[in-house]
Amino acid sequence: MVGRWVGQVVLYAAFAAFLGLFSDWPVYAPYDPGQSLIKLSLSHPGRRKEECRRRSREELAKLSPNMRSPLVCSRERWPVLVELDLNGKSIFARTVNPAGLSADGQSSFYSTFAVPAGHHRIAVRMRDRGDGQDFDYTHDAWITLAPAQAVVVGFVEDEGNFFIE
User: Fold this and answer.
1) Cβ pair 80, 46 in contact under 8 A
2) According to the model, what pLDDT value does residue 6 have?
3) Are the C-beta atoms of 115 and 31 separated by less than 8 Å?
4) Helix residue spans in the chain (DSSP H)
5) What span, in angstroms and rounded, lies between the C-alpha atoms of 47 and 77?
6) How many CA atoms lie within 13 A of 137 on its CB side?
7) Which residues contact 35 (CB under 8 A, 6 or more apart)?
8) What's the pTM?
């Protein structure tokens, strides 16, 4: 009986030592110490593919009372295009379709970029409609990144502005 207890203690101690060793070794660094990180993280619904229209009085009269909404709006939205430039060179350009079965949700973007620390110019652009080559939202800024610093590039829906923090 004592032999079993001693064997269990030895096995538990070996397992704890194994966990302790690999919890701190080998050292893992996802990026070089002199680099910084830029994270692009945003979700944005594209504009509706069709504008809402008002129903006529005749159309409303044909509907049951609980269905008499004065506006008819298509749910489908345009895909959203986001481009990100660093020091004049494109590092990200992607078009994402809207989420949802009816293509009526948001288009979501998330990507990370390891860049050298220092002074950089960031330009970010977004188009949320499918009728042209112009961008609906743009932002251009100079930032200074310290080694191991992370900044987020995002979008504030209420204000219609990009931010870099």
Assistant:
1) yes
2) 86
3) no
4) 2-24, 57-62
5) 5
6) 22
7) 114, 115, 116, 117, 147, 148
8) 0.78
